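Predict the 3D structure for this chain.
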Amino acid sequence: ASAIDQTEVITEPTFFFASTITLHGSTAEVAMLGGDATLHGQYQGDVHFLGRYFDLTPDAQIMGNLVIQGSRHVTLRGMVKGRVEGSWDRLFGNAQSQTGTTSSDAP
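Done. Predicted structure below.
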């Protein structure tokens, strides 16, 4: 799909593949492969992203870990309760809102 705008809360572990992905919460683990992803709402499990741009909006909260692979820009305006890990070129966000550790394997 070229674009996914999932307005309902996801209740089962789900994999999304699209050039643009917009989600509005999940009670299960979520994985995304695509160009750009924007997350709103609350996420109970881990969130995995492989793509170009990742945006965690101010109204979003991830209770588990956020795992990023190969992303160019990661913007964390919301809260991540677990760890933020993986590889990215640039990470933007409020470090005070993060309770976990942040690491990047990018050069």
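The chain has a mean pLDDT of 88.
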